Amino acid sequence: NTFTDVALDAQYQYIGDDHLFSVSSTWIHETRKFNNVALVAHADNTLDTERITGSYCCRRKMGGSAQGFSTTATHDDVLCAGGATVLGSARGRPDTQGVVLELDYLPWLNTKLGLQYTLYTKFNGSSRNYDGFGRNASDNNALFVYTWIAF
After folding, report:
1. Contact present, 99 and 92 (Cβ < 8 Å)
2. CA-wise closest residue to 90 among 139, 48, 33, 137
3. Cα 95 → chain centroid
4. Global pTM value
5. Which residues contact 16 (CB under 8 A, 6 or more apart)?
6. So what's the pLDDT on residue 84?
7. pLDDT along the chain (151 residues), means of 10
8. Residue 97, φ and ψ in degrees, nearest 5
9. CA distance linking residue 73 with residue 34, whole number of Å
10. What's the DSSP call for residue 35?
11. In this structure, are residues 136 and 147 in contact, taking their beta carbons and an 8 Å threshold?
12. CA atoms within 13 Å, Cβ hemisphere of 19
């Protein structure tokens, strides 16, 4: 099997005394050629990933970020495990889209308290019944509460 990736990555960052702001983006295009065609429906596949993230921090205490993400790929019922619950794709596509929202509080220099929510608008090819067993993309939404400490 051969996997070839081409990617672009960009970032802008502003660091002031009271305000910090950044915008970053990533685009990855992967071409996949499979030698064993029994494991896939198509010997040649592509996979594309895009992400863009904006973040802001005020007075180095309160901040947040928002990220949009998207993954799209060639239709392939075998590779995408059609008919599998939760992780399968009834449409034979891993296409996934959504948003990640985060709020941060930095009580002192080396500690961050965070609240992050991931919202899926599409998962494995569809918004509704993506796995063929009634599971919707929004069923994968996740809330993550964390403490980050740097030594």
Report:
1. no
2. 137
3. 11
4. 0.89
5. none
6. 66
7. 95 96 98 82 90 96 98 85 73 93 95 98 94 92 97 87
8. -140, 150
9. 15
10. S
11. no
12. 4
